[in-house]
Structure formats: C-alpha cells, structure tokens
C-alpha cells in the first residue's frame, strides 16, 4: 500500500473563505456609503501549496486572480479562467511579454527597465498595468518622488497604444501589527491623489483589519489582494483563523506506523533531545521534514491522534516524527493522525510552535505527499 500520508484540499473551504472576505467588504462599503472593491484572489506559490487548479475552482466567485509566475497564469487560463489575471511582480525579460500578450494578462510595473521593455515590445493588444508605489516596504516600487514621472511615462505609452488601464498600487508592511497602515496610506494618497486609475492597497491583513480603506468613494475601481486568509490561515499572530470565520482548506493527515514503550529515562530520536521522565508510550507517525513538516518543530508542538490532542516529542526526522501517546491509550498502529487542518491543530498553531508562520508550512508541502481534492 502507499505510505499513509496525504493532504486533503477542500474546495468548499476555499469558496467559504472568499465569501467571508466578500461579506466583510460589503459590510464596510454599506457602512461607509461607498462601493465594495473587487477581489483579486492571490494564488501565488501554487496557490499557497493548495494547487492552481483547485484555487481556480474554489475562487470562481472572485473578480480576478493574482500570482507571480507566468506558468501559473497559463495554467489558470488552461483551467478555464477567463477573468483578469495580475502578475504581482510583473515581467522579467522581453520574451515574457509575448506570453502576457497571448494570454491577456495584466502586469505590475515597478521599474524603469520594465517601461523600456514595454516601449520596445510588439503587442497585439494594450496591456493593463498596476503601477507600484514604494510607500515604505522598500522592496518593489517607484519612490514617491519618482512616481509622478513614472505615471507620466505610463500615460505616454498609453497614448502610443501600448498600455491600457493604468492602476495604482502599494503593499503594506505592518497591516498585521500595532504600527498599522496609516503612515503608508498617507504616503500613497499624497503621491496618487491627482492621478486617475484603479486602486489596490490591501493585502489579507489590511483587507480584514481595515476594510474601510478599500471602499471606493470615488469613480475609480478599487481592488483588494487577499492571500493567506483565503486558505483558512490567519494573517495575524494574535487572532486565530477560526475567530475570523475562516476554515482550513488544507488538512495534512497520516497514521501511526509504530509504537514504542519507553522506560523512564529513555531517549527519543536524533540527538536524544527528548528524555522520558516516566514510563510512557510513543507513537511513530509517517510524516517528516521531507513531507514539508517543519524540522525545527519542538517537543510540545500540537498533534491530534485518534481525535485526541497530544504533542510531538523529540526531533522531527526526514520521514517520521514521534508523538506522546499517553493521552491516547487506545492508539495503535494504523490510528489516524492529523498534523494540521480539519480535525487537527490549526496550521498557525503548528507554525507558532515551530517559530514560523502558517504561510511557510502550507507553501512547503512536498511534491511527494499525495493530494486529494474534495468538498
């Protein structure tokens, strides 16, 4: 039989989480007397490990999809997605524009070099762009001082028939924390106030915490770009996904493949970093860091065995990890194990125990793990 590990992807959970975001935006728009923004469902990194095709189906009610890789954009079109697609890092070489043109993609423009490539391109249609402003994240984007001239360059290419819609976007660095978005939002408004075009500023954290800033109160289209929350994980370290009404879309499951009876003082796993302080039973689970489970997850990381919450013990191996079976006296070889997701701990709990974030664990699901799709 195959090794007893699999990831289950719930299409209904994806759709539910998108609806949670939509209802929050609708409520904010109603309260503010404006129009709710459109949603670009962010499906970069193979839809955060969930699979592009699953995301296309689960997010069918979104107005658009956003990602990084041209190959993933092509997969969306081949899966039947006919709506807008935005490449969040734009394009990297002139040949990319052939694919952008052929598959009717919109692109983020954040450098002078991209303008130069657009000016030299031979295109069959106008390309829609989002012109990125660096408001303090200091990754991609034109500085506030250079933004007006960048927008003028975009308008020039528009007048030459190269560009279509010219949007304005930025990315918040601290929407999930105490610093918030006020300073960056002010910088964005100051730099773009007099410039026409669609607007997009909100990622998952800003969309959920500050939905009012995404509400359209002018005649320009507004878009949000939620990512992690659509997969049922929280963008906030201090707010569980469940309290936001989100459902886990990925569940990582396995089984016990061995049981050891330890005497007091016996050690477990590589490095002998766990020592039993009493006689105890330890279960061996068919899951390790080669499957995407974090190697640095410490003793105490939550695991659910046979429906009972227990803990990881010792060091995670490439193909196995060990769990405390004392809370689960009926557990035996073949007992089901939930590493995270539905019927298990939240992926954010596992990530927090391992000193990382849920994004990393979802994206790190290894190709060798079989994936099952369902409702």
Automatic annotation (TrEMBL):
It comes from the Bacteria. Pathway: Amino-acid biosynthesis; D-alanine biosynthesis; D-alanine from L-alanine: step 1/1. GO terms for biological process: D-alanine biosynthetic process. Its cofactor is pyridoxal 5'-phosphate. Residues 249-374 form the Alanine racemase C-terminal domain. Keywords: Isomerase, Pyridoxal phosphate. GO terms for molecular function: alanine racemase activity; pyridoxal phosphate binding. The active site is at 44 (proton acceptor), 270 (proton acceptor). Substrate binds at residues 139, 318. It catalyses: L-alanine = D-alanine. One of its GO terms (cellular component) is cytosol. The modification N6-(pyridoxal phosphate)lysine is found at residue 44. Its EC number is 5.1.1.1. Catalyzes the interconversion of L-alanine and D-alanine. May also act on other amino acids. Belongs to the alanine racemase family. PANTHER family: ALANINE RACEMASE, ALANINE RACEMASE, CATABOLIC-RELATED. NCBIfam families: alr. This is Alanine racemase. It comes from Bordetella genomosp. 7.
